[in-house]
Amino acid sequence: MKKYKYLILLVFLMAGISACRKLNIPPKNIIQDPDVFTSNGGIQAYMARLYSELPIEDFRYSPQRGLNFFWIISPTPATTGEALSRDQTGSMQENLGGWNWGFWGGSYTIIHDCDYFIQTLPKYASTYSTAQVNAWLGEAYFIRGMTYFALVKRVGGVPIVNTVLNYTPGSDVTDLKVPRSSEQAVWDQVGSDFDFAIANLPAVNTDYGDGSRANKYVAAAFKSRAMLYAGSIAKYNTATLFDANKNQLCGIPASAAASYFQKAYDAAKMLDGVYSLYLSAWSATDKTAQYQNFINLFFDAASKENIFVREYNYPNSVHGYDAYNVPRQLIGPNGYSSEVNPTLNFVEMFGGLPKNADGTLKTLDASGHYIMYNNTMDLFANAEPRLRATVIFPGDAFKGQNIEIRRGIYTASSAGGISPLLPAGSRSQYPLTNLVISSTSTQTAYKLPNGTLMNPAGLSGIFTGDQTCAISGFSVRKWLDPNLPTSQAKENNETQTWIEMRYAEVLLNRAEAELELGSAGTNGANAADAFTVINQIRSRAGATLLAGTGSLTIDTLRMERRKELAFENKTYWDLKRWRIFDKEQNGTIYKILMPFYSSDAGKFFFDARTDERNDIYTYDPRWYYEQIPQGAIQKSTNLIQNPGY
Q1: Helix (H, G, I), strand (E, B) or coil at 347
Q2: Which of 171, 174, 497, 561 has a CA between 20 and 30 Å from the CA of residue 349?
Q3: Residue 328: helix, strand or coil by DSSP?
């Protein structure tokens, strides 16, 4: 995959130039259509700007701050159920206005620019080959489809504007007040735009190589995602909204679900043999190799799993993911760390840890005392390699250091076993009796019986007042650059490539569509194929393979999707389209896992409990359809607000 550096097109629109007497002659400092559309460079610059503004939830996105936010100080993650954040307390609602990129207006700016390109390029078609023109039009349709997709998944039916709306000062603005179309019509528009892109884009985009520019298979991959989303809305959504003409602005008739699932399956199947799961130096028997393989797939530019990426290049296009998320002991110059901390709920999804009969993590022995470990990593000896590549465990190695995550030191005798520090289910703070716990921004080292000194919380555990530490007992591992020097882990200084679409997701889309269709699905859609696909993903992950087709249920598949795509800003949208966000989150206090060191035994034990902050999370069901900005409603009486706002 070749590097693609976004070009910048500066267009100066001036209301008037006093020195220009011949008003029918365009001022020389205004870029005109012929300047753009008669050269490859002009079109590439136009296209680069469109790509740079694609509404992608990447490193510079958070639900609170929106898209393309330059300074993501204290980021709120789009990782509900996966992680805790020191600043996400109580609810997970996306701010549609954002702090930087007004989503509604920004989306329609992109749509306008796509429409203008689609209308204008044919006027200059004779300058290029038919294949070139079709490919560029295909890209414009792809970008427009992506933008409508971003709108409809948030608010339901939106105004469909597929022609350039012209306005002359003082003229009638009635035609500019386009009403909302039905939600189904917008999903069909998304599908139609992707279909045009599939039909007109080449198999390989030769302008800049595959990866950061669309080709027909990229369009097919995103069509599989979009149609799967539409099918889920048709099947699971219950909220509705109709306008005066009985257009259903929110919701899709349930009878349409199968059609969308079939389209998702067909689009996913198009990628067979074109992309593949990343298996570089992978071994079916070596868990260390499986772990390293899953890490490498996010950094190998030549990976055949990468379908569509957003590349970053210093100094013009950068982010600060490492600065915000490295463990505390690797904190960079900006003073941020551990903003996203995986929950025990998430870690337990993967299996491989000792379990009680009820499926909960086993931390106590048969006599009711803590199980003791020589090393904190011993608890995770049988953990799935994919999990270890996603989450930093207490005591695991990263950048040549053992990541020290502890909650405190137990100072009483361990003879006869150590009883639980708190009653089961307690939401109280840990007692100070027999425990040395740091609760300030600095630690006082404790002298162990052998005379050595130990920091109670280690170097990355809970000891900072601002909570830039492992508040859940874990740190995130996925996406962190293992070769980035600590001195360079700074805001707006990092350049990892964001993988927006990879083949694993396409396989998951395909399998989910098959299960939703059932054995009656056409084109070979059936549970047996879904079973094979999921086991391919599990095999690469180092997970135990499913035993038979009967073991693959829709819930099993959803769990697999959450594990595979964790911290890729996909779970947030999956929970919304499945309409289970409120069921999972309302009244929930997520679980954490705190390691302690016994000074007497010279060993470690773990205490599983709910988040010490007692933050109860909520999700209002009305948020399945987000609020259309009031400013847009005020500008057009034809826009109807979503229910509950």
Answers
A1: helix
A2: 497
A3: helix
pLDDT exceeds cutoff 70 at 74: no
Q: Is 446 helix (H, G, I), strand (E, B) or coil?
A: strand
Closest Cα to residue 291, out of 283, 299, 301?
Answer: 283
pLDDT digits over 379-429, tens only? 999 999 999 999 999 999 999 999 999 999 999 999 999 999 999 999 999
Using CA atoms, how far apart are residues 469 and 457, in angstroms rounded to an integer? 10
Supply angle C-alpha 260, 263, 267, rounded to 5. 145
- The four Cα atoms 251, 252, 254, 257 give a dihedral, to 10 degrees, of -120
**CA distance linking residue 111 with residue 181, whole number of Å:** 15
* 293-to-2, 185, 210, 303 alpha-carbon distances in Å: 21, 42, 22, 11
φ/ψ (deg, to 5) at 242: -120, 150
Cβ-proximal residues to 195 (8 Å cutoff; 6+ apart), any chain: 223
Contact 608, 360 (CB under 8 A): yes
Q: How confident is the model at residue 15 (pLDDT cuts 50, 70, 90)?
A: very low
Are 244 and 182 in contact by the 8 Å Cβ rule? The answer is no
Alpha-carbon distance values, 279 to 290, 501, 511, 565 (Å): 9, 17, 20, 17
Closest CA to 534 of 550, 552, 517, 522: 552
Rounded distance, CA 18 to CA 274, Å?
57
Residues 6+ apart with CB under 8 A from 349: 559, 562, 563
